Amino acid sequence: MRCARCNFENIPDQARCIKCGSILQGEEERVDVYPPRMPRWKKPVRRLFRWGRQQKVVGEEGVQLRVPGRMKIMSGDCFLGLLLSIVPGLAHLAGGRFREIRWYLLIWFVLLVTGVFCYGSGFSFYLLALAIGLHAWIAVHHKLIKELAGIGVKLFVTAVLVMVLILVYRAIPRLVFGLRGGYTSLTVPYHNISRGDYLLARRRSVLQGSIRRGSLVLTRLSGIIYGDGRRMPGRGEAMVVEIVGLPGEYVETKDNSFIVDEQQLDTKRYPVPIWLRGRRISVGIPQGCYFISTEYSIRGRGASDEVVRRACLVQAADIEAVAFMNWWPLSRRGFIRSD
Amino acid sequence: MDRFSQLEFGEARRSGAKAPGGEPIRDEQYFYKQGLRYWLAGDFEPALRNYSRALEKNSTFLEGWIGQVLMLIELGEYREAMVWSDKALELFPEHPELLAAKAVTCARDGRKEKALAYSDNSIAKDNVTSRVWLARAEVLLGRKSPIAENCVSKAISIAGNDGPVIHLEAGRVLNKAGNYYGALENLREAVKLLPKSALAWYELGYCQGKLGFSEAAAAVEQSLKLHPRWDIAEMTLRRFKKRGFFRKLFGK
Q: What domains sit in chain B, N to C, each tagged with a CATH number?
């Protein structure tokens, strides 16, 4: 049998050419003749890496992640691995087992990003809960799950981890970005804000003393009414209110508008809350306090002026942050005018 | 065997082996020729399918393996082309054309060092074909080497019966590297020898367009006549027709 490549005359029934090793006749097992194909979604990713290689941003062998030796050692330990898993997948990455959890990590990332994007809406809490659950699973999957015996213990440890992660997820925006958030019970047409909107606030602004008339601030109040059936914070939760009067000023309500030091305020920017409408009050604001506008559940029409005074005045120390952005709903998302 | 020796260029089909009923025998050669025809029409996906069918008939058919790898490269699936050429190399160890195909894959995928290594390896083998020299040219053009054009000349000089296709391939390689004057000469030769190849006309039109020639649109239109509704040609033609004076002048 003659080889098509090198023309060497081989012994009959030979599978491969003795001289060049080329295949001479179909081998007994069937050869797969259909090549692998690239999924369409990979095309832009590969193009990006190709561009990176051409621009010498990425090496010819792609992105090579180098994990520090100490981290590798840490990933070998059960507890330290768990600690590394505060960043999801880090313990797996350090231990060279990233491929095992890559899809879970992708799903976690999608859940987290979607949850943060929709934060303030009802379903965002479910998405974030799923993300936390998945994060906990990735963390225990690293080593812990194999170390523990019994489904009860495994579930208990996972539940504890979920609790810890909830605290971590709550703390990160506060500690790292100085962010707070809260719902508002006010409708302020000037800022395009409606009752039930979720606003983001910054702690730094309070520390810098940038509280002005018209600022929307986050503070803890009690006795909030929940008007339109949407989810609102429970009693004592942080809530966004509007500053109407500053320390030392004199605030009155008349004809459904605020009057501060005998000057009437714009009702679109400083709307009088429903419970104050039709009521005439006059309050002198003591030093260290602010007059705020928000919806309260003051029982009955006959509440005394003293009650009203107490409801509308907040201590400067109770103000946690100044709102800077309307985050949810998406249709009203945008920065709050600071003029 | 010349890889393209059995190809019917343009003229009336003179089919090869026929069954007693007059129907062509659907063996590996039949599907291979079909694949080549599709390739010359710029239809890479059906060309790949036909090469696969040729291999279904005979898995030791080297041209089928090479054709598959080349089509994967044409389709921009470089990683798959590498996998497939490795598989082909298991059947045909150290085959220079397969090594050359790997070199082209690496070069187009931005892996210049590997491309050069594969090209060095392929060129060191016996019975180096035109395609190996063209692959060498492509790798060297990517590295802006002055000897790249010598490799193109060498490929054409040893082409033999494969001349028309090698002219077309050489034109495409030079086109890709931005050497449009060098490409033009080869592509003119290619369309003369392969007047019914939509791919040749398209490449010629593209090259002429880059050089700012007024015949560019006509060449692309010709390719569209041969291969109607060809996306890439339609897009190029639209772009040519929209070009302003300065773009025509500077060949952009």
A: 1-8+16-77 (1.25.40), 78-250 (1.25.40.10)
